[in-house]
Write a structure and sequence with these properties.
Blueprint lengths: L1 H11 L22 H15 L7 E5 L5 H15 L5 E7 L6 H11 L11 H15 L2 E7 L1 H8 L2 H12 L7 E7 L10 H7 L2 E5 L4 H15 L7 H14 L3 H17 L7 H21 L3 H15 L7 H14 L7 H13 L3 E9 L2 E9 L3 H10 L4
Parallel strand pairs: 1-4, 1-5, 2-3, 3-4
Antiparallel strand pairs: 6-7
Bound molecules: adenosine-5'-triphosphate (ATP) and magnesium ion (MG).
C-alpha cells in the first residue's frame, strides 16, 4: 500500500515543480522582451538615487504587457543595489487605494503615522505626510499602479497636489518622483490641463507582446516552475502564437500554461502537449466567462440564458423579439417582473460589449431591420452547462 501511495504522489507531481512560479504575483529576475523598458525606467530613477531631481513617469499599455512586473522588478533591484541611496520607494495599487483619501492614508502608514482609517480630515493626513516626508530628507518614488481607477473614482487632485509639491519644495531638497501606471491608453487626456502640466510625465509605452517574446516568457516559466522535459516545445510555441494573435497578454499566456500543466497532471500524463494546450485554452476561457457571468445582474443573466437556450435548440441567429419572448418566460420562472423590450435590447448590447455574445444587424428581413445574436463566446452547450452549474435551468 505504501509503495502504491508513493507512486501516486510521484505521478501527480510529474509536471509542476513549483506552483508559485506560475502565479500572477511571481516576478522573475529577468523579464524577457522588456530589457529596454527595465533599463529606461532604471535610468530615469538614477538621478534621484544621486540626490538630483528626476522626471515623473507614466507607464501606458494594455493589460498583461509587463507594466507592474517592470515597476516592481526595478524598484526591488535598485533598493538592493543602492541600499544607502537617499530614496524611499512606495508601491500602491489604486484598485485598493482608489481615493485621494485612501492614498494619503496609506502614505501616512508607510511613514509610520498611525491614523484612523476613516473620518479624519484629509488636509491633516496631507500635512502629516508632508511633515514626515520632509523630515526623512529622502526622495520619494511613489508608484501608483492602476492609477486610472483612482482618477475615475476621485478625479486628479492627488496627482495635482503631489506633482505641485516639487515646485513648492526648494530645488535643493529631495522631492517626489511620481510614477503612474495605467492600462487605459488615453489616461493622460483625462487629466485636467493644469494637472498635466505639473505632472508632465515621461511616457513609457508597453506594447502587446509578440509571439517570440511570449515564447521566451513561457519558456522561462516552464524551466523555473515545471519539471525537466515535461513539455513539448511545440506546445509552448502554440500558446505564444495564439495569444500573440489575440492580445499579446502575458498574463493570459501564463494562465494557459498553468492550466495545461494542471490538466496534464490530472490526466496522469508526463508532458504538456499541444492537444492539452488546446484544452487549456478552453478551460481558461470558460473560467473567465464564469467570472464575468457571476458579476452580472440577474436580468443580464436571464437575457444571456434566453439567447443560450435558443441557440441550443439550433435556432439560427435569434432576433431581439424571440429572445425577449424567451426571456419573459424565464422571468416567470424566477418570479421577477420582466423589463421592457427596449431595456432588453440594451442589455444585449452590453453583453456584446462584454464579449459574452456577438450581435449584428440583420437588414431587410421579413420584419425589417433587426438585431440578431450571431453567436456566444463559448459553444451554446458549454454556456448552458455553466448556467446549470450555477443552478439556473
Ligand atoms: N517580460 C516578462 N517576463 C516575464 N514575465 C512577465 C513579463 N511580462 C509580464 N509578465 C508576467 O505576466 C503577468 C502579467 O504582467 P503584469 O502584471 O506586469 O501586466 P500589467 O501590464 O501590469 O497588466 P495590467 O494592466 O492588467 O495590470 C505577470 O504574472 C507578470 O509576472
Ligand atoms: Mg498591472
Amino acid at each position: 500500500m505504501e509503495g502504491y501511495a508513493d507512486v501516486r504522489c510521484d505521478y501527480q507531481r510529474r509536471i509542476i515543480r513549483d506552483r508559485r512560479i506560475l502565479r500572477d504575483s511571481y516576478i522573475p529576475k529577468e523579464l524577457p522582451g522588456r530589457q529596454s523598458e527595465v533599463e529606461k525606467f532604471t535610468n530615469l530613477l538614477l538621478p534621484a538615487i544621486n540626490n538630483e531631481p528626476s522626471l515623473n513617469i507614466v507607464f501606458l499599455g494594455k493589460p498583461g504587457t509587463g507594466k507592474t512586473a517592470v515597476a516592481k522588478r526595478v524598484i526591488t533591484d535598485l533598493s538592493e543595489k543602492f541600499p544607502s541611496a537617499p530614496v524611499r520607494y512606495i508601491y500602491l495599487n489604486c484598485s485598493r487605494s482608489n481615493t485621494a483619501y485612501r492614498v494619503m492614508y496609506a502614505l501616512n502608514r508607510e511613514y509610520g503615522i498611525l491614523v484612523p482609517p476613516s473620518g479624519y480630515p484629509y488636509d491633516e493626513l496631507y500635512n502629516n505626510f508632508l511633515a514626515a516626508f520632509k523630515h526623512t530628507r529622502q526622495w520619494l518614488v511613489l508608484i501608483l499602479d492602476e492609477v486610472d481607477l483612482l482618477v475615475r473614482r476621485d478625479g486628479d487632485r492627488l496627482i495635482y497636489s503631489l506633482s505641485r509639491l516639487n515646485d513648492e519644495i526648494g530645488y535643493k531638497d529631495p522631492g517626489i518622483v511620481l510614477v503612474g501606471i495605467s492600462n487605459t491608453p488615453n489616461f493622460l487626456e483625462k487629466l485636467d490641463p493644469r494637472t498635466l502640466s505639473s505632472f508632465s510625465p515621461e511616457r513609457m509605452y508597453f506594447y502587446p507582446y509578440r509571439a517570440h517574446q511570449l515564447h521566451d516568457i513561457l519558456l522561462q516559466r516552464a524551466k523555473e516552475g515545471l519539471h525537466e522535459s515535461s513539455w513539448d516545445d511545440g506546445a509552448i510555441s502554440f500558446i505564444a502564437a495564439r495569444v500573440a494573435a489575440e492580445s499579446g497578454d502575458a498574463r493570459r499566456a501564463i494562465d494557459v500554461l498553468r492550466m495545461a500543466a494542471e490538466l496534464a497532471e490530472r490526466d496522469g500524463l508526463d508532458r504538456i502537449t499541444t492537444e492539452i494546450v488546446k484544452r487549456a485554452f478552453k478551460s481558461v476561457d470558460e473560467e473567465e466567462v464564469i467570472i464575468t457571468i457571476r458579476s452580472l445582474p440577474l436580468h443580464h443573466r436571464l437575457v444571456l440564458l434566453a439567447a443560450t437556450k435558443l441557440l441550443l435548440r439550433n435556432e439560427e441567429r435569434p432576433g431581439t423579439g424571440k429572445i425577449y419572448y424567451q426571456y419573459k418566460r424565464l422571468t416567470r420562472d424566477y418570479y421577477v417582473r420582466p423589463l421592457t423590450l427596449r431595456r432588453v435590447s440594451g442589455i444585449l448590447r452590453e453583453l456584446d460589449e462584454q464579449g459574452l455574445l456577438s450581435i449584428r444587424m440583420s437588414y431587410g428581413g421579413s420584419r425589417g431591420n433587426t438585431k440578431v445574436v450571431d453567436g456566444l463566446v463559448l459553444e451554446p452547450a458549454e454556456m448552458y452547462q455553466i448556467f446549470t452549474n450555477m443552478g439556473f435551468t
